[in-house]
């Protein structure tokens, strides 16, 4: 009986130990907005023309929520992004903004890209008859394995995921 209790105690002591975690607080990478992908247009249907625009959005700002860190060669950050949405003759309240967050290394090579969807609702104007300009803030957690710390990214690029036809209209 004593041996069993001893084994159980040893199991808890060694089984619950915290292992070797190497956490390094670092300065957060610079954030840039992709020039060709910083504006978004939603259409009422699959017809991509200027008379069919439901709403427009742009990436306005971003900020880190906490310090950035590298834990056991995994980069971690929490980034809030501000989108400004302008309605255009729409009856739909729901907003869906597909966007990406890309990390590039010091040589501007793509290290990682993560895809996200910001969702929200258009705000009604004061007279509640039509929609008004709306701010939408979304927070994303960035977590990327770093094969080599020398490859660490010093830049994050944010942009909308757009079809080629939409890129032509936006730009």
Describe the protein in words:
With 171 residues, the chain is mainly beta. Helices cover 12% and strands 51% of the residues. The strands form 3 sheets. Strands 1, 3, 4, 5, 6 and 11 form a 6-stranded antiparallel beta sheet that branches. It has a 4-stranded mixed beta sheet with strand order 2-12-7-8, with no helix packed on it. A two-stranded antiparallel sheet has the order 9-10. Strand 5 and strand 6 (74-87) form a beta hairpin. The longest helix has 14 residues, at 2-15. The chain starts with a helix and ends with a helix. The relative contact order is 0.24. The model has no long low-confidence stretch (mean pLDDT 82).
> Quick one: overall form?
elongated
- Report the total helices: 2
Into which percent range does the helicity of residues fall?
Answer: 10-25%
User: Runs with pLDDT <50, length 5+?
Assistant: none
Measured distance between first and last alpha carbons: 77 Å
Kindly provide the radius of gyration, computed on alpha-carbon positions and rounded to a whole number of angstroms.
Answer: 23 Å
Judged by helices, strands and strand pairing, the structural class is mainly beta
Query: Beta-sheet strand percentage?
Result: over 45%
Count of individual beta strands: 12
Secondary-structure element sequence? Answer: HEEEEEEEEEEEEH
Short note summarizing the structure:
Helix content is 12%, strand content 51%. The chain is mainly β and 171 residues long.
Descriptive labels:
4-stranded mixed sheet; mainly beta; elongated; 2 helices; 6-stranded antiparallel sheet; single chain; 51% strand
């Amino acid at each position: 009986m004593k041996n069993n209790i001893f084994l159980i105690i040893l199991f808890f002591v060694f089984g619950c130990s915290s292992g070797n975690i190497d956490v390094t607080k670092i300065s957060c990478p610079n954030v840039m907005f992709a020039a060709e992908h910083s504006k978004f247009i939603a259409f009422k249907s699959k017809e991509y023309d200027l008379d069919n625009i439901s709403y427009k959005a742009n990436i306005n700002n971003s900020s880190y929520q906490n310090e950035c860190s590298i834990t056991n060669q995994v980069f971690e950050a929490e980034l809030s992004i501000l989108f400004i949405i302008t309605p255009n003759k729409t009856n739909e309240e729901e907003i869906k903004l597909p966007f990406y967050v890309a990390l590039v290394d010091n040589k501007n090579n793509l290290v990682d890209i993560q895809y996200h969807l910001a969702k929200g609702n258009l705000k009604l104007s004061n007279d509640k008859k039509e929609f008004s300009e709306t701010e939408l803030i979304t927070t994303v957690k960035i977590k990327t394995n770093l094969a080599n710390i020398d490859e660490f990214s010093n830049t994050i690029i944010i942009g909308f995921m757009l079809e080629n036809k939409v890129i032509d209209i936006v730009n």
